[in-house]
Amino acid sequence: MVAIGIDIGGTKIAIAAVGSQGEVLASVRFATEPNLGFKTALSKMISGINHVISDGVLKGEMLDGIGIGCAGPVDPARGTIHNPHTLPTWDDCDLVSPLAERFAVPVRMENDADAAASGEARFGAGRGSDPMVMLTFGTGIGFAAIVKGQIYRGVAGEHPEAGHIPTIADGPECYCGLRGCFEAMASGTAIDAAGKVSGFADGRAVFAAAAAGDSLASGILDVAVNSTATAIWTLAHTFLPQRFVLGGGLIDDHFELFAAHARTALSRAVLLPKGRVEVVRASLGNDAGVVGAASLVMKTGNIG
Ligand SMILES: [Zn+2]
Q1: Same domain as 137, residue 277
Q2: Where residue 242 sits, what CATH number does that domain have?
Q3: How far away, in angstroms, is 176 Cα from ligand 1 center?
Q4: What is the pLDDT of residues 127-148, one digit of tens each?
Q5: Above 80 in pLDDT, residue 304?
Q6: How far apart are CA 9 and CA 29, in angstroms?
């Protein structure tokens, strides 16, 4: 069994052939360059797919399908992209139909957070847990929930945005219109911005200074981890997941800092089953995007 996973971000696209155990068999990466238009990107994606399957990975097997995780919003039912902010020239473009026609296999597209959660649920740190909630800490905060083996969807199939749970009263203004949103306090962008206001070069400098005992830097991180604990508390009381899976660049290096506060908060929750809600680190690392995307079209035990 081999499936193609395509992970589309604002700056780069990664394509991989992925085997039945979630292993990357061959991969390629290139710049997204949304300024060059959708058709150029589509033809680069077709070349990329041909490249990874021409690497001898199929060994006579059929290709199961092509899964796509795309920086949202996307419409999974229509296979279209609606992200004028990150992918301005791709608005309302249909990526699914041309790939299905060209390769004659099932093609499915989801928001990248949903694709990553599907991968962690099937091959990574979410295995064996249901419901599962995944939070991805990067430029923003990605949210996805897997409930009864299915990607949880809201009205009209849309994707809930838990990054906009308000967590800190009178926090900085968020682009959604509220103040103190989880994403506005704890994302990489938020820590960068808070650091710059206090004279640090960037978020990395904030973490380094906090580790060296700087109280200003520690204060910035306290706000971020407290915001995270409040968001996890809120989601625990809403979804009551068996497991929270935390991933993304920030978490790769600082998981224990964020998880410890969330676990302490959950241990005090009198209305939740004692000790049943786990907080774990995502395990697919750099391959999470492509493996998650490929998992969307794998035939057995499919995450729907
Ligand atoms: Zn917001």
Answers
A1: yes
A2: 3.30.420.40
A3: 4
A4: 999 999 999 998 889 999 999 9
A5: no
A6: 11
Q: How far is the CA of 295 from the centre of ligand 1 (A)?
A: 30
Domain of residue 221: give its range. 125-283
Q: Tens of pLDDT along 248-287?
A: 988 888 999 999 999 999 999 999 999 999 999 999 988 9
- How many independent structural domains does the chain possess? 2
CA of 261 to the centre of ligand 1 (A): 22
- How many whole angstroms from 141 Cα to the centroid of ligand 1? 10
How many Å apart are CA 294 and CA 282, to the nearest integer? 17
Distance CA 275, CA 269 (A): 10
Residues 13 and 86 in one domain: yes
Residue 133 Cα to ligand 1 middle (Å): 19
> Which residues keep their CB under 5 angstroms from ion ligand 1?
164, 174, 176, 178, 181
According to DSSP, the residues that pair with 7 across neighbouring strands are 14, 69
- My answer on whether 46 and 169 are in the same domain is no
Distance 278 CA to ligand 1 centre (A): 26
Sequence-ordered strand ranges (E) for 112-164: 132-137, 141-147, 150-151
CA 186 to centroid of ligand 1, rounded, Å = 12
Phi, psi angles (nearest 5°) of residue 237: -80, -10
Q: In this structure, are 162 and 270 located in the same domain?
A: yes
Residues 267 and 158 in one domain: yes
